[in-house]
Design brief:
With 490 residues, the chain is mainly alpha-helical. It has 16 helices and no strands. It is globular and about 90 Å long. This is Ammonium transporter.
Length: 490
């Protein structure tokens, strides 16, 4: 028979339990292994990898967000009849790139090197362990302890940028199927080959200590030169004004928003390329140089254009900031802040000259992509050979203007020439092939009615009317019977 447990019995049981715990607890604590130097080092390493992973993912998200910036910039600078096309191309480029980067791009870029020219494995990520960690903790070709999947995503965000640069230069008259094809080819073949040369530890330019910290040559020169070739083979947009007169922008508010998003995203592009937080001083230097380069570029462009036209030009100011950002991207980790001022100012002037130069060639580049990315990507890469600090460069050699001679400058010149020649040849082959099969330029009817209407059956302002159209619509609705969505206040 069960009896009710009296309260004092409970108190006695608690007292006995407390005594046992008090006696045994020190023994349990002493039974645990005391920390050792090895265990502390292992814990510290794991913590550092966790912090670095968070850092690289967050900066990778910023780089991916730059797709929004490019979309808004292009939408603002284009004519209204091509905005939907530009928005869709920017959006779908990211979708196409992630698939081809997964399939072949990442393997060509960072797989086992074939003579320093391209990777031969890791296609479809098939050779990665399930957890993405290699036996030595590193991805082949990348000296980092980070998880392979983290590095894959970060590098994908860069790959998406290269084809998006090209989209801007070819906007308003490119066949949509052709855009899908060239975006896939760039993300899967041409861009990864250059990545392998420069950012794979076994690439032939990497072994020569070619310097490009975050992509002035690898991303921007590749995107810029590909864009120029594509725009040349496409021909001009229909109905554009005479050469030397820049067609008016559709929406300067969107263009400004897009540029500010790009500037913000560049803090993922450049500081994120440290691939870790182990050297906070380097992250600070890269961030400061990036900001100074953008500011100097904007100031130089707007002042120079004012002296030419007597007007404070917003578009040139925006492109000037982007030119400064592109120019500083290669050397942001290898130069002192004063040099970033020089690079930014130079970029701001070059972008104005570059736009004039492209116009003089009768090539229609709606957003100035080659002037911003192609010309200043080359300038920023070469600038390392002039202003590189021996304390910061990979081979501990200074630039020409700092007493280092021509060694570093010679390597930079060799690298940028090789990258540009390969990119130009590949672009002519790629776009020439698209032209041959009828998928480079849209049908002539699209030139007549507008690419948005022809290719997408849409307009960026579907519910905006002129006053006469609005009155006509109102009268039409009043003459019809009330239905769903109508309201009569009388």
């Amino acid at each position: 028979m069960n009896k009710r447990i009296r309260p004092w019995h409970r108190l006695l049981a608690l007292a006995i339990g407390s005594m046992v715990f008090a006696v045994c607890a020190p023994t349990v604590v002493q039974a645990a292994d005391p920390p050792t130097l090895n265990s502390l080092a292992e814990t510290t390493t794991k913590l550092q990898i966790s912090i670095d992973t968070t850092w690289v993912l967050l900066t990778g998200f910023l780089v991916f967000f730059m797709q929004t910036g490019f979309s808004m910039l292009e939408a603002g600078l284009l004519r209204q009849r091509g905005v939907v096309n530009a928005l869709l191309e920017n959006f779908i480029d990211a979708a196409v790139t992630i698939l081809v980067w997964w399939g072949v791009g990442f393997g060509i870029a960072f797989g086992t090197s074939a003579g320093g020219f391209f990777g031969t494995d890791t296609f479809f990520l098939s050779q990665l362990p399930v957890d993405g960690v290699f036996p030595m903790g590193t991805v082949p070709g990348i000296p980092s302890q980070l998880n392979a999947y983290t590095l894959f995503f970060f590098q994908f965000a860069f790959a998406a940028t290269a084809s998006t640069i090209t989209t801007g230069s070819m906007a308003g008259r490119t066949d949509f199927v052709g855009d899908l094809i060239y975006s896939a080819v760039m993300g899967g073949i041409s861009y990864p080959i250059i990545v392998h040369w420069v950012w794979n530890a076994n690439g032939w330019l990497a072994k020569m200590s070619f310097h490009d910290f975050a992509g002035s040559s690898v991303v921007h020169s590749v995107g810029g030169w590909t864009a120029l070739v594509g725009a040349y083979l496409l021909g001009p947009r229909p109905g554009r004004p005479a050469w030397g007169i820049i067609p008016p922008a559709h929406n300067l508010g969107l263009a400004t928003l897009g540029t500010m998003i790009l500037w913000f995203g560049w803090y993922g592009f450049n500081p994120g390329s440290t691939l870790g937080t182990g050297n906070p001083g380097l992250i600070g230097l890269v961030t400061i140089n990036t900001t100074i380069g953008a500011g100097a570029g904007a100031i130089a462009a707007i002042l120079y254009q004012y002296f030419r036209s007597g007007k404070w030009d917003l578009v040139y100011c925006l492109n000037g900031s982007l030119a400064g950002l592109v120019g500083i991207t290669a050397g942001c980790a290898f130069i002192a802040p004063w040099a970033s001022v020089v690079i930014g100012l130079t970029g701001g002037i070059l972008v104005v000259w570059g736009i004039d130069f492209v116009e003089s060639l009768h090539i229609d580049d709606p957003v100035g992509a080659f002037a911003v990315h192609g010309i200043n990507g080359m300038m920023g890469t070469i600038a390392i050979g002039l202003f590189g600090q021996s304390e910061l460069t990979l081979n501990k050699k200074a630039g020409l203007f700092l007493g280092g001679g021509f060694d570093l400058l010679g390597i930079q010149l060799l690298g940028i020439v090789a990258i540009c020649l390969f990119t130009i040849a590949f672009a002519f082959l790629m776009f020439g092939g698209l032209k041959a099969i009828g998928h480079l330029r849209v049908d002539p009817e699209a030139d007549r009615v507008g690419i948005d209407a022809y290719e997408h059956g849409a307009t960026v302002w579907p519910d905006v009317y002129a006053v006469e159209q609005f009155v006509e619509e109102e009268e039409k609705h009043r003459s019809q019977k009330p239905g769903v969505g109508t309201f009569d206040s009388e």
